[in-house]
Amino acid sequence: MGYSVMAEDLKNAVDFVSRASGTSDIIVFDGAVGGFNLTAPLADLLRSKASTVEEEVERDLLPKWCEQRSLKLNE
Prior knowledge:
Blueprint: H1 10-21, E1 27-28, E2 37-38, H2 40-68
Antiparallel strand pairs: 1-2
């Protein structure tokens, strides 16, 4: 937490990070439990990648994860 910066509100936090980082793809942790806030451009990017990631998880990653734990994957 030594590198953290406090902001007045979520909008100011996002504006600060956008200027400091030069990107609009931002996740902001605001202390909420069980969720997070992200910018619309990042949400759009994640949605566009979701189907490809889902295929890779189902085809490659989940079977490997189950095998490493000696779990039987029901198909």
